[in-house]
Amino acid sequence: MSDRIFNFNAGPSALPLDVLKKVQEDLLNYKGEGLSVMEMSHRSKTFDGIIKDAERLMKEVMNIPEGYKVIFFQGGATLQFAAIPLNLLPNDKKADYVNTGSWAKKAIQEAQKLEKSINVIASSEDENFSYIPYDIKINPDAEYVHITSNNTIAGTQWASFPETGNVPLIADMSSDINCRKIDVSKFALIYAGAQKNMGPSGVTAVIIREDLLEKSPANIPSMVSYKIIGGKDSLYNTPPTFGIYVVKLVLEWIQNMGGVEEMEKINRKKADLLYNAIDNSDYYRGTVKEDSRSIMNVTFRLPSEDLEKKFIAESLEKGMIGLKGHRSVGGCRASIYNAVPMEALEALVKFMAEFEKNNG
Ligand SMILES: *Cc1c(COP(=O)(O)O)cnc(C)c1O
User: Fold this and answer.
1) Are residues 120 and 106 in the same domain?
2) Whole-model pTM over 0.85
3) What are the residue ranges of helices labelled H in the chain?
4) Dihedral in degrees, nearest 10, Cα atoms 53, 55, 56, 59
5) Is 1 within a domain?
6) Of 81, 174, 176, 326, which is best to mutate to test ligand 1, by the most ligand atoms within 8 angstroms of its C-beta?
7) Is 196 a catalytic residue?
8) Which residue of the set 59, 96, 172, 270 is catalytic?
9) What is the domain range of residue 26?
10) Cα 54 to Cα 37: distance, rounded to the nearest angstrom
11) Catalytic-residue membership of 318
12) What is the pLDDT of residue 2?
């Protein structure tokens, strides 16, 4: 596998090599059935086993308590930006949102487009989204509070989650689901597009407290209705079968690695290695306040934009992809999701030291 490159892409992003090998092994003839998962009916007994396994594994890996349902949607996390207010925010009620970056902003805008009433209760836009506004004041009569647990573009992550009392907490965890241990019981709803930390694009997992399923109004499209899609166990129409199968394999892989506790340990080691390299240099500069640093997306700058261009071009030659920052912010970003191995980080910090020496 020496021809595989070090993948720092933000999403779609690296998948565990073991998972890819398993996919390859299963591809032409899934468990002796003579066909691939892509080619079988979503109503077949075999696929039913796959989707039930995926749901069970989500519950095991995340330690989801009783009373929650796991639903697989299409439409990405972006569809959930609309689905959440459509299902959970009646027109005469308000919801609180925290604006911590581009994705949070899109969630807010999508709700506003639906003419829902939104309070932006905190924002870090004043400082280019370089910090998490931990100190938030929640409106006690809000229908829910929406946060983005990890800000993929800005490189920030909530280190601890806000206490919201009786107000349901909703989190977009697209880029950090299963990167660390969390207490699911603090959340009313968690959603995540799979293509960052959990599988291929095309599948979005929604973990929802079951009592909320009853809130979906009858007059919203079926494809966004938690009540309808959840009520049919994600099989209301043809689900993204292949993606769900790969998600199942990724969850099995996490379990085999020792679960999210073990993932978190490795992730923190990986992130420490990179942040230390940045902190110990006057050449590289982190863009994020220390208490808000993401262990999934590490953002940094070089002394000039020209040097950043050169750095990214040379990194490609060294077999590293994806180090260019998001087009909206520039700079550099290394996305170091669960599937990115320690060796990739070692290669990156070695390259950074060499580059500094040659261009300092
Ligand atoms: C990538 C991303 C999204 C958008 O996901 P899609 O699946 O492309 O709709 C939303 N939120 C966060 C935090 C993301 O990282």
Assistant:
1) yes
2) yes
3) 17-27, 45-62, 76-88, 102-113, 226-231, 241-256, 259-279, 305-317, 342-359
4) 150
5) no
6) 174
7) yes
8) 172
9) 19-256
10) 14
11) no
12) 66
CA distance 139 to 233: 33
Note the pLDDT of residue 1: 53
Q: Contact, 182 vs 162, CB < 8 A?
A: no
Tokens of 316: 């490609």
Write down which residue in 206, 238, 256 finishes a domain. 256
Q: DSSP letter at 161?
A: P
Would you call 103 a catalytic residue per the annotation?
yes
Domain assignment present for residue 332? The answer is yes
Ligand 1 pocket, CB under 6 A: 11, 76-78, 103, 148, 152, 172, 174-175, 193, 196
Distance CA 169, CA 96 (A): 10
Tell whether 197 is covered by a domain. yes
Q: Mean pLDDT, 10 residues at a time, over the chain (360 residues)? A: 89 98 98 98 98 98 98 98 98 98 98 97 97 97 98 98 97 98 98 98 98 98 98 98 98 98 98 98 97 98 98 98 95 98 98 97
Atom of ligand 1 nearest to the CA of 79: 9
141 shares its domain with 115: yes
**Structural domain total, the chain:** 2
Query: Is residue 263 in a domain?
Result: yes
Are the C-beta atoms of 206 and 188 separated by less than 8 Å?
A: no
